[in-house]
Amino acid sequence: MTRIKESSSRNENKKALAGECMEIYAANIIGGQWTLAICCHLINGKLRFGELKKRLPWITERMLALQLKKMEKNNLVKRTVFAEVPLRVEYELTESGKGLEPVLKLLEEWGIKHLKTMNN
Fold this sequence. Notes:
This protein has 120 residues and is mostly helical. The protein has helices spanning 2-20, 22-30, 33-42, 49-55, 61-73, 95-98, 101-118, and strands spanning 47-48, 77-82, 88-93. A three-stranded antiparallel beta sheet has the order 1-3-2. Helix 1 (2-20) packs across helix 2.
C-alpha cells in the first residue's frame, strides 16, 4: 500500500512541476533515451516498425511498441496503417514532433562538447 502512495505522490509532484515550468513539461514528454532515439531516426522521414527496430537493435520489440504508443499519445508520432496483406504500418513525426529538430541538433552539439570535457 505504501508503494502506491509513493508512486501517487511522485506523479503529483511531477504534474505540479510540469505545470509550473514548461521546460519540465517538455522534458517529461521527450524524456527517456528511447523517445529521443526514435525521434532522431524519424526526423529523416517515415519508417516501418521493423526498420526502426533494425536501427535500434538494443531496444526490445515490446519496448519499441510501448514507446511508439506513448509518443503517439503525446502527439509526437503519427501511425498510419495501410489495408494491405501483409499489414503495413508506418510511423512518422507529427508537426509537433518535427518541431524537435532544432532541439535535437542543440542536444547533439551540447553532447559533443560535454563529452570532450569529460574526456579531458
